[in-house]
Amino acid sequence: MSLVSTAEASTADWLRQAERVTVLTGAGVSTDSGIPDFRGPQGVWTKDPAAQTLFSLDSYLADPDVRRRAWQARLAHPVWHASPNPGHESLASLEHSGRLRALVTQNIDGLHQAAGSSPERVIEIHGTVHWVKCLTCEQRTPMPEVLALVEAGQPDPACPDCGGIQKSATISFGETLERDVLNAAVAAARDCDLFLAVGTSLSVHPAAGLCEYALVAGARLVIINAAPTPYDGAADALLRDPIGEVLPRLVAAAT
Ligand SMILES: [Zn+2]
């Protein structure tokens, strides 16, 4: 007899039968890669609420010192030395099995693509740290080009086209999500037969609301997260195991 739980065995069955799986991933998928969580018990903002100021659009626009500190934080971001972990790799395998409708992620680290997920299947609802955008003219520049300027001594590099303030192409507090990206995520939630929420506290809207779209459309909902979420009562199965262990087992059993 295997030691897997009933919930895990059921999830493996559903995954095997599914034709269109939409996955939503959050910070818990990337913590094994050394990318810190922000809202969890050991989260960056839980331990230091002032750090959140760096991510507010209003303070970023108003205060050159906030921008200087934000560029230094980007330079020191663990993402530049991070590698995908077995959780990311198993989701790339799920895509290769032909069952993945879309991989919606709240993460900005690009590790799903680094693990082999197709960029056109990955919907980054909170943006990406791998690009810089101008807040005036929306010109986009690869992050390494701008970080090179920061390293060379420019505290807050301006847009080369219009001189505007630049920021990582991530969604800050006070900034709305990009409509096209959000629409694509909602469409994927409505058009799946299994919705897997992995490593997300499901506490941030509109990402969390994707579960509701999937449920209303008749999909099964499986939540894989260490801590309880507001959607646990609506889920068909809850898995508390470490993501890097349970996801590879599930995908191996289903493919
Ligand atoms: Zn510009």
TrEMBL record:
Amino-acid positions noted as binding Zn(2+) in the UniProt annotation, renumbered to this chain: 134, 137, 159, 162
PROSITE patterns, per the entry: SIRTUIN (PS50305)
Primary enzyme class: transferase
SUPFAM superfamilies for the chain: DHS-like NAD/FAD-binding domain
Entries under InterPro entries matching the protein: DHS-like_NAD/FAD-binding_dom, NAD-dep_sirtuin_deacylases, Sirtuin, Sirtuin_cat_small_dom_sf, Ssirtuin_cat_dom
Residues of the signal peptide: none
Keywords: Metal-binding, NAD, Transferase, Zinc
Enzyme Commission (EC) number: 2.3.1.286
A single GO molecular function term of this UniProt record: histone deacetylase activity, NAD-dependent
Active site positions: 126
Keyword RNA-binding: no
The Deacetylase sirtuin-type domain, residue ranges: 1-255
Protein name as it appears in the record: protein acetyllysine N-acetyltransferase
Organism of provenance: Natronosporangium hydrolyticum
Upper lineage: Bacteria, Bacillati, Actinomycetota, Actinomycetes, Micromonosporales
